[in-house]
Specification:
The protein has 145 residues and is of the alpha+beta class. It has a domain at 64-145. 12% of the residues lie in helices and 21% in strands. The strands form 3 sheets. The chain has a two-stranded antiparallel ribbon with strand order 1-2. A two-stranded antiparallel sheet has the order 3-4. The N and C termini lie far apart (68 Å). Residues 1-19 form the signal peptide. Its main location: membrane. It is found in: Membrane.
Length: 145
């Protein structure tokens, strides 16, 4: 019985090692456009020449052309807007997916000034614990480039 278990373990280990492929480049897409490159990205933006003469290919882009896209968890194929308090530098801001959407071909990050009680796990406390704070969702109406 022990020999059988050892042989099974060795076979599984061999299959696992054989399955590892460190040079895997991914599967080519039918369109010829990288899987993370938006089809609306202009052709001249898909590759650039570096100052050293190397050709660089674009690996990720998003043109935000689809009107009314929302970024709640599971709603978008690339992005997820977080629903968390901002813990950096003792900030009192709160990020929420309801404030991130697309409009007129632009990504909009609307910020509202709303006081909200939020309960969350704060790992940065001297003794990490769950705490409740009144946070402010600061907002600029719409940020556009």
């Amino acid at each position: 019985m022990v020999l059988h278990d050892v042989l099974v373990l060795m076979a599984l280990l061999l299959l696992h090692v054989h399955a590892l492929d460190y040079d895997f480049e991914g599967y080519p897409t039918r369109s010829g456009i990288g899987a993370w490159v938006d089809a609306d990205t202009p052709l001249d933006a898909r590759s650039k020449q570096s100052s050293r003469g190397e050709s660089w290919d674009l690996v990720m882009s998003d043109e935000f052309e689809e009107e009314g896209r929302t970024f709640e968890a599971g709603k978008d194929h690339i992005w997820t807007a977080l629903d968390i308090p901002d813990g950096v530098n003792a900030a009192i801001g709160l990020y929420t997916p309801a404030n991130v959407y697309t409009k007129n071909g632009k990504l909009i990050n609307r910020v509202d000034e709303v006081h909200t009680n939020v309960t969350y796990f704060n790992q940065w406390l001297e003794v990490p614990a769950i705490e409740t704070n009144t946070l402010v969702r600061f907002s600029i109406d719409e940020i556009e480039d």
